[in-house]
Amino acid sequence: MAYPTKNKKVIKFVEETAALTCPDQIVWIDGSEAQLEALRKEACQTGEMIKLNQEKLPGCYYHRTAENDVARVEARTFICCREKENAGPTNYWMDPKEAYKMCYDIARGKMKGRTMYVIPYSMGIVGSDFSKIGIELTDSIYVVLNMAIMTRVGLDCYDVLGEDGDFIKGLHCKCDVDPEKRYIMHFPEDDTIISVNSAYGGNVLLGKKCFALRIASFLGKNEGWMAEHMLILGVTYPDGTKKYLAAAFPSACGKTNLAMLIPPKHYLEQGYKVECVGDDIAWIRVGKDGRLWAVNPENGFFGVAPGTNEKSNPNALAATRKNTIFTNVAINPEDNTVWWEGLTKPAPEPLIDWLGNDWTPASGVKAAHPNSRFTAPAVNCPCLSEAFNSKEGVPLDAIVFGGRRATTTPLVYQSRDWDHGVFVGSIMSSETTAAATGATGVLRHDPMAMKPFCGYHMGDYFAHWIEMGKKVTNPPKIFNVNWFRQDKDGEFIWPGFGDNMRVLDWILKRCAGTVDAEETAIGYVPYAKDIDLEGLDYSRETLESILYVDKARWSAEADEIREFYKQFGDKLPKELSANLETLKENCGK
Ligand code: SAT
Ligand code: MN
Question: How large is the average pLDDT for residues 213-238?
């Protein structure tokens, strides 16, 4: 057949995979609207997708995954490098030879009766120095349509590759969606990803976590840049000045909400504006000016639906009103639209829940799965930054880390310097969420929110952060935030959402050197008077309670961090152990 590319490696990859998986036909995706529309139609005919109310939700579709296939599966996600040591203690590892054989055995013949789609896509703007090309082979129309939203899909990717260019190979095969044979395998030394027996987003949209974080973090270490689990946002001041920050939070901890926040009224009245550059992934490099520059390699938002509403995140909600794919939310049969917990109160009834069952509030179960998602094009977002399409990206003034912590970690604090900031990122812990299978609400270490996404030894990753600090002459300041402090009744103490602007404001004032702070055992903490509470019914005493640094708790935390650090052995950078000792000393031992 005539191929749409002369790249020999692409053709070989396609032919070899077809020989293994035996699809009835191969369809080369060109990214055209006509081709995507034909696929939507086909998916609706087979029941893979449902067309929603086209007046209320134009271009929107609905999909249900299998009941056992609703989140990332960390226990089945492996880094398959030749030396086990290089995967490190925080990753599952398998020998690459064994892993290839196992995956090939699982996928052999499994595309019989199906079509194999060849998706050429770019992470980042096609052809920019900051971008990389991937080819994903998949037997799922749902994957094709999601990739066409989340990445830049098109034949121009082949122009970038030319006859001989390299790319990240991705093979996805649904197989039998058998959870016992589900594997998400990464071969960082071969630029290859194989995903079998799943059809859930994070496991199968291979451009996202698999490529843009796990493989890219490995490439970044070798090539001197960073792939991070971070949103990127810009704040425009009333005088037109723009400042940018990147923030790392674990999955389902509010990155999308922070990235699209609407500032409180009096900020808006003064002319402040917040714009979204990205909500999940940042690729960060050292610019010629000695600063760190960040791009968002994605082209859409794969956001958590529950909790998204007109108040919490009107921008995200607006982004989902057209050309969006909804996965595992509930359907309102009356008008064929979607619903999820938190969208409106009370819930419309009856609904059809994410499993396809009739549902009313009396059903006693959630109508939408807690990890149900929307896949929305970035261009739909009303607060999308112009810089979203900039090849160079944006210069970072601040880097922010944050976990979900009911106690101990104050609302915000600033690190003393870059190395201390790396320490602050490395000691992040957070309560687990529905974004991955397993128990939720369990406190676990999640350094830089990269525990599930670092494609190599976490000790080497810390060392890479320290090294990057040496390459930047004008580094961003590093902060930690915690929106999730709880009172004794389990209620959140800080209002969060748009009011987080008040904390961002303090952070940017610290970057500009225009506000003082108190030096504490853990770093610089705001004086309560310096957090703007205008228009908020909130007492300074309550604010003080979540800014307080409890030395006894931090001393215990330091002991616990020492235990956590032990697994990194010799790979733990001395800068981090030194900072741990300082923390312990500052807490009075
Ligand atoms: O499922 S994804 O990994 O794509 C989203 C997330 O968990 O952050
Ligand atoms: Mn994420």
Answer: 98
Residue 396 vs residues 59, 234, 290, 400, 447: alpha-carbon distances, Å: 35, 9, 11, 11, 20
* CA atoms of 367 and 347, how far apart (whole Å): 9
Q: Is 302 in the pocket of ligand 1 (CB under 6 A)?
A: yes
pLDDT at 474: 96
Spatial contact of 501 and 263, defined as CB atoms under 8 Å apart:
yes
Q: Tell me, what DSSP letter sits at residue 348?
A: P
- Ligand 1: does its nearest atom lie under 6 Å from the Cβ of 304? no
Looking at residue 2, its pLDDT comes to 86
- Could you tell me the CA-to-CA distances from 265 to 268, 499, 529 in Å, in that order? 5, 10, 20
End-to-end CA distance of the chain: give it in Å, rounded.
72
Helix (H) or strand (E) holding 217: helix 216-223
How would you classify the pairing of strands 152-153 and 168-173?
A: unpaired
In Å, how far from its chain's centre is CA 89?
22
Longest dimension (CA), the chain: 73
With a 6 Å cutoff on the Cβ, whether 72 touches ligand 1 is: yes
Domains and CATH numbers, the chain: 8-48+73-223 (3.40.449.10), 227-297+386-588 (3.90.228.20), 301-380 (2.170.8.10)
What is the identity of the amino acid at 120? Answer: P
Work out the average pLDDT over 208-228.
98
Rounded to whole angstroms, how far apart are CA atoms 194 and 203? Answer: 10
CB contact at 8 A, 211 and 168 = yes
Residues facing residue 170 across a β-bridge: 136, 193
218-245: b or e for each residue (b if 16 or more CB lie within 10 Å)?
Answer: bbbbeeebbbbbbbbbbbeeeeeebbbb
Q: Inform me whether the pLDDT recorded for 1 exceeds 90.
A: no
Q: Which of 195, 256, 280 is the pocket-test mutation for ligand 1 (most atoms within 8 Å of CB)?
A: 280
The 10s digit of each residue's pLDDT in 56-76 is: 999 999 999 999 999 999 999
**Per-residue confidence band for 487, with pLDDT thresholds at 50, 70 and 90:** very high
What tokens appear for 244 in the block?
Answer: 């940018």
Peptide bond into 476 cis (omega under 30): no
Looking at every residue in the chain, the average pLDDT score rounds to: 97
Place of tokens 């926040």: 261
Backbone CA torsion sign across 377, 453, 261, 237? negative
Residue ranges in 413-518 assigned as alpha helix (H): 418-426, 458-471, 501-512
Q: What is the mean predicted confidence (pLDDT) over 141-148?
A: 98
511 is catalytic: no
